[in-house]
């Protein structure tokens, strides 16, 4: 069958809601405010994060799948959404104890949460929308 | 000119980001958790709220406008976004001091913030998306 | 609290996938083809139906909800998606045994499946997207 | 068949591209600039207009349609898009010879172009997006 | 002229509707059900497939086009949509006689249907949305 | 901190409205019409251009940003939107004096307007939607 073994990317889109503020420990409030503006306001704000997880590899000859997107969705729920959804990223999430929860850093954290659970023969790529007009991609 | 005086609705879409939690004062934590689930987690979560403001009235013979959408956008910025954007609704916004910031209640609050600034001959309607899949409309 | 008792609409968006063909029993194949075109091809085609369910009523003083959207989502899953998702509407769904599964008819069927499970004091409205460019609303 | 005769709305979404400027004949350039801002710049700008045409009526017992959306799409192409698509509204379209092509006025013009071609027993409603954040509805 | 000869990608988005089921010939019904879940139900389900076709090459000095998107749209209609739109992929489409119509395989089939009709100096890339939340890309 | 120095892309989405026509100087009207069709009509048409600007580089250790998206947005406003928004591309924009304003050419022009204002260590990529179904990417 002609498509077998061809390299394809499969993408699953998920979402989660979280609160955060941009804030660098060790900086004064003035430094934080001048660098991060409204995003640094002390009582947090939040986002509907839209998350795309892309897995790239060869089509499996048996199933016609690179990876079952239902399984990928379950892995994202278990290892990413369970950790981040409806949370305060600064206060509730271990990975951001000393890391500013910018979209860039959140994308790297999500990648690292998920990477151990995806077969090593498959490539992993993260796209994260913080708003409909601001988003990031990792690795780039 | 044939369209003059015809009744038309004009709609402006804006957005803001905010943190909140659903929480009824006077209820125990268990009551809040059983009613509001993850939305009641203590450290807040957040949303990209998409807000549609609809104003209905007759087309003005001079301008061809029901209302200048640039002006409507400015009024929303000044009276609504200034109050809610990048805020913690529970902690920072007077209107939610004793009011649970459900999407329903936020829509009513936005309506009441904006109503005094729209000409009384024009009708006002609010549509508020809390997530791409959950939204509310007021008045209904 | 000022928003209590105000009438608000709450909307939940869900989706399902199904196959169908437009076909009137008792008509010849030629009649069906000339009326329904490609939509009448014998081996079925399908759609990602996007479904919006709107419930309208007064804000509850205790919760600030018209209706918990999580509960509404569960009711739609149980009474609508369970019946229609990943099905062949013509072959698998009792309601379409003698009813052409046009978008109009599907919207009425969904309304009637859900109506008994929504409190009678609340109004129910269905919006159904058959494609991003074709959709229907009931009641109108 | 239970859905027969029920009143349903069917909506078809189309789009067209056009140039325009907001400009009131008889006003000075200064008056136009102060009222319409950048929208009044002399060499025109343009939009991807997204047009929704809603037709409301009873479900036909034979077809299960309120109105065939393929037919509605053809009528919009013939009577609206043929007139407006890839045109300069101010210079090329008779209806705007003495009418400022605001979104409000364009919606009324589209309604009046289409109304004679829709059965009189059916209601007609126009929603017109000038940008993703600015749109109008007629009748309201 | 400074942009001439620069390499640019042009993308055209199309859509089609089709029915399918995921099913591997030679497997038992139990094997198919356990691997493909609801997607394997015997009477088919369907999707609104959104298809993006990307063609990459140098800007032509005469036209300013990499490739006329109107022509690309016509080629997609003729060689892809004609074959897949409003069809049952398993029953009606030769390419899936022995190939499971997963999104991955459909993307490869679309690529191979179109490749002979695109100039060999141009690269071809396919993105296929099976649902708004599940999509694939080929080649990856 | 584990994400520091990792390479990430950050994307900002903006939009502008403009009029244009496709037209090659030195060609006859017939040549222009036969190559560019309705897009060559003499009185211009227009679009809501959606513009995505992608900047790729290492995460800054201090801020957690690749680049502040607020700053990127300001640079796009100042150097791109100021030049193109609400303009007639053919008549008002120096870059298109001798260059056909195809989407391909507009993307290259936008890239060249912005490139001098982005740090040289960062990569720059442009995605430009002329309509929701037609878009281009540069460099490809």
Helix content of chain A: 25-40%
Taking Cα atoms only, what radius of gyration of chain A do you get, to the nearest Å? 17 Å
Number of domains of chain A: 1
* Overall pLDDT level of chain A: 96
Q: Number of helical segments of chain A? A: 4
Order of helices and strands of chain A: EHEHEHHEE
Q: How many beta-strand segments of chain A? A: 5
CATH topology call of chain A: Tetrahydropterin Synthase, Chain A
Q: What is the CATH superfamily classification of chain A?
A: 6-pyruvoyl tetrahydropterin synthase/QueD
Uncertain segments of chain A: none
Oligomer: homohexamer
Major interchain interface with per-chain residue totals: A-E, 23 and 26 residues
Largest sheet of chain A: 5 strands, mixed
As laid out across the biggest beta sheet of chain A, the strand order is 3-1-2-4-5
> What form of chain A results from the Cα inertia axes?
elongated
CATH architecture of chain A: 2-Layer Sandwich
Outline the structure in words.
6 copies of one chain form a homohexamer. Chain A has 140 residues and is an alpha+beta fold. Chain A has a 5-stranded mixed beta sheet. Chain A has a single domain (3-138), classed as 6-pyruvoyl tetrahydropterin synthase/QueD (Tetrahydropterin Synthase, Chain A, 2-Layer Sandwich). In chain A, strand 4 and strand 5 form a beta hairpin. Chain A has helices at 29-36, 69-84, 89-92, 103-114; strands at 7-20, 45-58, 87-88, 123-131, 134-138. Chains in contact: A-B, A-E, A-F, B-C, B-D, C-D, C-E, D-F, E-F. Chain A binds chain E through residues 1-3, 6-14, 54, 56, 59, 62-66, 68-70, and chain E through 22, 24, 35-37, 98-105, 107-109, 112, 132-140. Strand 5 (134-138) of chain C pairs antiparallel with strand 1 (7-20) of chain D, so a sheet runs across the interface.
């Amino acid at each position: 069958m002609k498509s077998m073994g061809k390299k394809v990317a499969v993408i699953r889109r998920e979402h989660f809601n979280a609160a955060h503020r941009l804030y660098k420990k060790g900086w004064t409030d003035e430094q934080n405010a001048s660098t991060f503006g409204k995003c640094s306001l002390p009582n947090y704000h939040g986002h509907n994060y839209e998350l795309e997880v892309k897995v790239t590899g060869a089509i499996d000859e048996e199933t016609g799948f690179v990876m079952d997107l239902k399984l990928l969705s379950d892995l994202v729920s278990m290892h990413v959404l369970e950790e981040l959804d409806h949370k305060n990223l600064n206060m509730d999430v271990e990975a951001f104890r000393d890391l500013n929860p910018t979209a860039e850093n959140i994308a790297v954290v999500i990648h690292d949460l998920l990477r151990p659970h995806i077969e090593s023969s498959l490539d992993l790529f993260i796209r994260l929308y913080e708003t409909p007009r601001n988003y990031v991609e990792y690795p780039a």
